[in-house]
Amino acid sequence: MIPDSPEALADKQAIRDLIYTYCRAVDRIDVPLGHSIWHEDGEADYGASFYQGPGRGVIDLICKSHEGLLSHSHQVTNILIELDGNRAGSEAYVSGTMRLEREGCRCRWASGRAISIAGKSASARGGSPNAWSSTITRKSGPSRRWVRKSVLPATAATRPTQS
Predict the structure, then answer these.
(1) pLDDT, tens digit (0-9, with 9 covering 90-100), for 26-52
(2) Considering just the CA atoms, what is the radius of gyration of the chain in Å?
(3) How far apart are CA 91 and CA 139, in angstroms?
C-alpha cells in the first residue's frame, strides 16, 4: 500500500471537515453554515419519503424540522474517503439522536449511513480555489427508526431551557 501524499491527506481532512460541518450546522440550526458545504448544483437524496432535491434545500428542511425538538445531536464515525483527482467519494456512519415529545411521551430516533461525492471548485466555500464541497449525498439505512420511547410525561422542570 502506497501512503497518501501530504496533498491527499489535506484533501481527505477537508472532506472530513465538510462532513463534520454538516453535523454542526444541523445541530445548531445554522442554515448559512449548512448551505456552505454544498456546491451550487449539489443534490441530496435522503429517499423519496423524506427529501430528494438541491443539497441546500435539505439543510433548510432539516433545520426547520429541528426547531420543534427538545434536543438533537449528530455524530459521524467510520469515515472512508477515496480520492479521484478533483472528485472524491466518502462513506460514513451517521448517528442522530432527536428528542421530542409526542402524545405525552418522550421519543428518540437514530439514523443510518451516508454516502457522499465531493468535488473541488473555485466557486465552492467562498470562492477559494481548489476548495472541496458536497455534490451528491445519499442516506441509506433506517433513517427514522424509533429506538426508545418513554411513557413518563415530560414536565416543564425536565425540559432544557434555551438561552
Answers:
(1) 999 999 999 998 888 888 888 888 888
(2) 17
(3) 10
Of 30-44, 62-76, 148-162, least confident by mean pLDDT is: 148-162
Place of cell 469515515: 79
Strand partners, 145: 110
Burial of 70 (0-12, 13-18, 19+ CB in 10 A): middle
Phi and psi dihedrals of 85, rounded to 5? 65, -125
Q: How far is CA 20 from the centre of its chain?
A: 8
pTM of the predicted structure, to 2 decimals:
0.73
d(CA 112, CA 116): 13
Would you state the pLDDT for residue 42? 84
Backbone φ/ψ region at 118: left (φ over 0), alpha (ψ -120 to 50), beta? beta
Residue 19 CB coordination number (10 Å) = 21
Query: Which amino acid belongs to residue 65?
Result: S
In degrees to the nearest 10, what's the CA dihedral of 83, 53, 65, 28? 30
Task: Catalogue the long-range contacts made by 148-152 (C-beta closer than 8 Å, 24 or more residues apart).
Answer: 148/107, 148/108, 149/105, 149/106, 149/107, 149/108, 150/105, 150/106, 150/107, 151/105, 152/105, 152/106
**Quick check: helix, strand or coil at residue 26?**
helix
